[in-house]
Design a protein that fits this description.
heterodimer; A: 247 residues; alpha/beta; Rossmann fold; B: 321 residues; mainly alpha; ABC transporter involved in vitamin B12 uptake, BtuC; 15 helices; 1% strand; globular
């Protein structure tokens, strides 16, 4: 039984299709994500990466196909129910709660997702501080999110996602627009989270980051999977090169 | 520990307030202060109720007059059909307001921003039209209402209504304060800041907005119920007057919506000004003053009086160190 469970996928995307009017953004995509996997999702602009993760996290409903998480069909669940089941995400353009401090942003997650809702204020503060410590934001706990730098905002989003106690974390271009050393900071952070038994799907345009991070990479183009495999295999794939460089 | 002591202070303050209001009805013989005070207290309830959805969650509701008018007409209907006492009228109005809030919320809360606001205006017009065509409660011509004999210790019915409205103020503020300080308030604030991010952080956005709409609607309706007895008359165009919507909104925004005290301050400031102007110049000037103050505050103090007070506090603290 235990063996069967560990072998079953954490997330099963089964023939998922999402249309916007006549435009098919995600076209019949199927993939399994294994527990503990570091999964890279790449593809040119407009290839459907963000749409696919919106379908996973519940921001969009799928037209066809199912999303299974830990053996349950979650295709019809609203986003907050998926978050409570253990799917957390960051956003391509950071979306902090701007009227709150960093710590308060995390408290929203604690209030609504975990058993810590009934913990005392001191205990909740401890949980928040331990997450901020791990994400390198401990000194910023009581700073309003409006005063954060770009890299700090990215980390805050990951910290807020962590505060929901996710089993699956989806990072949507958490490194876009960051300087070289900052990219390494965020990448190290994601590596650290992955080592804490969290499955991570990483969308990224910065190739060396995806290659370093991922155990498996999937490349989308025009809503379809054109390659999936180890980073080296995908990079060597002719269609991937064509999609990125043009023919 | 700290929150416990502020809780005690809040309830002591509330009891002192009610005691002072009750004492006033026993000491002051002149009828006018209660006549004017009732209106001010009524606007405090409306502004506090408005801010639960409009302030905390950021959903700007133009439908205050719909809820207020439903409260008035719930009371009118009950008086005419059953002769129910005032307490029953108010409780029934709260129930009707909660149901209406739930129905309106289901219909409109999936819309965001200006679309939600426009839908709430449409709602007001629909309800007003319905009541205008309802003969039993007087239709467009309105209806006269007989006040029953007053209950001791009050000498006049207006004094009693004044005290009842003071009770509603304490109820509304206690609810708003509880929401602001609890997980509900944090969730509503997250919705106001960024609804998608809130949903993806586990906040059940639709359910929380519905809850806010139900509570806000129930309080608005309850605030409207005693108005039938206060005026001894009700007609659709005054019960559903858009002035209630604009005032509740303006008072909340001028007071500041980040704290429950904001709408209270705003309603007292504007309410007193309006009553003063109505006596000294004319009641028509009210709307002009309301407009000017709203523009001034939106430009100069977008966080309202509460924001202004906090800014001055921070500035002083900054100078002290």
């Amino acid at each position: 039984m235990a063996v069967a469970e560990s072998a079953s996928p954490l997330l099963r995307i089964n023939a998922v299709t999402k249309r916007f009017g006549g435009f098919v953004a995600v076209n019949n995509v199927s993939v399994d994500i294994r527990p503990g996997e570091r999964f890279g999702l790449i593809g040119p602009n407009g290839s459907g990466k963000t749409t696919l993760i919106n379908c996973i996290s519940g921001a969009f409903r799928t037209e066809a196909g199912t999303v299974m998480f830990r053996g349950d069909d979650i295709s019809r669940l609203p986003a907050h129910m998926r978050t409570r089941r253990g799917i957390a995400r960051s956003f391509q353009i950071p979306r902090p709660f701007r009227s709150m401090t960093v710590a308060e942003n995390l408290l929203v997650a604690l209030d609504f997702t975990s058993l810590h809702g009934f913990a005392s204020a001191v205990q909740r503060r401890d949980i928040v501080m331990s997450i901020l410590m791990r994400t390198g934001l401990a000194l910023k706990a009581d700073v309003p999110t409006g005063n954060l730098s770009q890299v700090e905002l990215r980390k805050m989003e990951l910290a807020r996602a962590m505060a929901t106690h996710p089993k699956l974390l989806i990072s949507d271009e958490a490194m876009a627009g960051l300087a070289g050393s900052e990219v390494d900071e965020v990448l190290d952070l994601l590596m650290k989270l992955a080592s804490e038994d969290i499955t991570i799907i990483m969308i990224e345009h910065i190739m060396q980051a995806v290659m370093r991070f991922s155990e498996r990479v999937m490349c989308l183009d025009a809503g379809k999977i054109i390659a999936i495999g180890t980073p080296a295999e995908v990079m060597a794939n002719k269609r991937v090169q064509e999609a990125y460089l043009g023919t | 520990m700290k929150s416990k002591s502020t809780g005690v202070r809040f309830w002591i303050g509330a009891i002192l307030f009610l005691a002072a209001m009750l004492a006033a009805t026993q000491v002051i013989r002149n009828e006018y202060p209660f006549f004017a005070g009732y209106i001010i207290l009524q606007f405090v309830v409306l502004a506090v109720a408005w801010s639960i959805l409009g302030g905390y969650a950021g959903y700007v509701n133009f439908g205050t007059s719909a809820f207020f008018g439903m409260g008035v007409y719930t009371a009118v209907f009950l008086v005419k059909a059953t002769g129910a006492p005032l307490a029953v009228q108010i409780a029934a109005a709260a129930g009707v307001g909660a149901l209406l809030g739930f129905a309106v919320g289901l219909l409109t809360l999936r819309m965001q921003g200006i679309f939600f606001s426009i839908a709430t205006i449409a709602l007001t017009i629909i309800i007003e039209t319905t009541v205008t065509n309802w003969r039993f409660v007087g239709g467009a011509a309105g209806i006269q209402i007989q006040r029953p004999p007053v209950t001791p210790p009050f000498d006049t019915y207006v004094q009693m209504l004044f005290f009842v409205q003071a009770l509603l103020v304490v109820l509304a503020v206690a609810i708003a304060r509880y929401i602001q300080r609890s997980w509900i308030g944090r969730g509503l604030q997250a919705i106001k800041d960024d609804e998608l991010a809130a949903e993806c952080t586990g906040v059940p956005t639709l359910r929380l907005k519905l809850l806010a709409c139900v509570i806000s609607g129930a309080l608005m309706c309850a605030a409207g119920a005693p108005a039938a007895m206060y005026f001894q008359y009700a007609d659709p165009s005054s019960a559903f007057n858009l002035n209630y919507s604009v005032s509740a909104l303006a008072m909340s925004l001028i007071g500041g919506t980040a704290h429950w005290a904001g709408p209270v301050l705003g309603a007292i400031l504007l309410g007193v000004t309006q009553q003063f102007l109505a006596v000294t110049i004319s009641s028509e000037v009210n709307v002009l003053i309301l407009g000017i103050m709203l523009v001034l505050f939106v430009v100069a103090a977008p966080e309202g009086l509460i924001g202004l007070i906090r800014k001055i506090g921070n500035w002083r603290a900054g100078r002290a160190t």
